[in-house]
Amino acid sequence: MAETRRSLTQFNSNTTGLFKANAVGLISEQDLRDFVYSTAFPVGVLSISSSASTTISSSGVYVQEASTWALDGAVRDFDMNTNAQLRYTDAPDVLAFFVAVLSGQHDGIGTKDVSIRVAKNGTTLAATQQGIKFKASENLQITTFGLVSLAQNDYLSLFVANDSDTTNVTMVTGHISAVGLFK
């Protein structure tokens, strides 16, 4: 039989849960396989494989980062079916811890206020906003992190804004990683 990822609620159920079954000696081999499978947390990582300039049409408006991204490292229950989208592919829902790290510069002169946000299903999460003053000639790093609930086929992506003007922004390196936890 195939293993099934179970939620913490399912394991703790008073009627069918693993721990209730243990009290009466009814833990099956399948229950144990499901438990082991469920504790191997989903993990996914995307990295910039080819840097590109992100077009900024309006100051302070977030747009999806334009680089080409690729799956990176060992991936479990995540994929990238569309460029720059780290998609959770399993069930049940998970609480995911994510970290995004980008380094880049703007395409103009002087210093510009640039900010990033992580988005879930294309909608930016305001709580993940981080800003920095980018220079035209120096790659500077910006990092954000957080927790988000992910259902099957939900995805995370990165958005960028130039809060100073409409000068384009180029991310030279970047990673977004997520680890799904029991929910």
Describe this structure in words.
By secondary structure, this protein is mainly beta. The protein folds into 2 domains: 8-39, no CATH class; 43-181, Jelly Rolls, CATH 2.60.120.40. It contains 3 helices and 13 strands, in the order αααβββββββββββββ. It has helices at 8-12, 18-23, 29-39; strands at 43-50, 53-54, 63-64, 68-71, 78-79, 86-88, 94-106, 111-120, 123-124, 130-135, 140-150, 155-162, 169-181. Strands 3, 5, 6, 8, 9, 10 and 12 form a 7-stranded antiparallel beta sheet that branches. A hairpin with a 2-residue loop joins strand 8 and strand 9. The longest helix is centred in the first third of the chain and has 11 residues, at 29-39. It is elongated. The protein starts with 7 loop residues before the first helix and ends with a strand. The model has no long low-confidence stretch (mean pLDDT 89).
Helix-strand layout with pairing:
Layout: H1 8-12, H2 18-23, H3 29-39, E1 43-50, E2 53-54, E3 63-64, E4 68-71, E5 78-79, E6 86-88, E7 94-106, E8 111-120, E9 123-124, E10 130-135, E11 140-150, E12 155-162, E13 169-181
Antiparallel strand pairs: 1-4, 1-13, 2-13, 3-12, 5-6, 6-12, 7-11, 7-13, 8-9, 8-10, 8-12
